[in-house]
Amino acid sequence: MAESKLMVWNTDPSETQPYEHLDDFVTAKIVGECLNRHYPGHLWEITIPDNQGTINIVDQVMNSWGLEAGGRWGVVIKKNDYATSSELERLAIRYCGELLERFNLSRGKLNMDEFNSLPTDYAGRHAFQK
C-alpha cells in the first residue's frame, strides 16, 4: 500500500495550464467531486502535471491563510498507486483527511470557527504545526 506524501511545492499560478488530455480532466473531476462530498467547504485545487505521473492536491483554504513554514502544503498521489476510480477516491479521501489532521483540522465539513481558533504567529498567519 502506498504511503501518504505530505509535500511542499511552489507553483506560479500564471504557469497553470488547462488540462491537455481528456483523461486528466476526468481524473481531476473524479477527485474533486469525491473530496467535495467528503470534505465540503474546503477549496481543493487538483493539478495533474504532464509527464510526471502524479496528481497534486492542495487545500486553498489552508494555503490562503499562510503557513509558518512557507510554501504550499498538499498531497501527491502517484498514478501507478491506483487501478480503478474507486481506489483513486479512497486514496484521495485518506490522504486529504490526513492532511487536515496534520494541521489540527477535523475531517469533514470545513468549520471556520475551528479554523479561526488555531494559533497564529506574530504576523497573524496560522501556525498549524509546532
Keywords:
4 helices; four-stranded antiparallel beta sheet; alpha+beta; disordered N terminus; 130 residues
Task: Give a verbal description of the structure.
The protein is α+β, with helices and mostly antiparallel strands. The protein has one domain. The chain contains 4 helices and 4 strands, in the order E-H-E-E-H-E-H-H. The chain has helices spanning 22-38, 60-64, 85-102, 112-116, and strands spanning 6-8, 44-47, 54-59, 73-78. The protein has a 4-stranded antiparallel sheet. Strand 2 and strand 3 (54-59) form a beta hairpin. Helix 1 crosses helix 3. The longest helix is centred in the C-terminal third of the chain and has 18 residues, at 85-102. It is elongated. The two termini are 29 Å apart. Mean pLDDT is 77; it is low at 1-14.
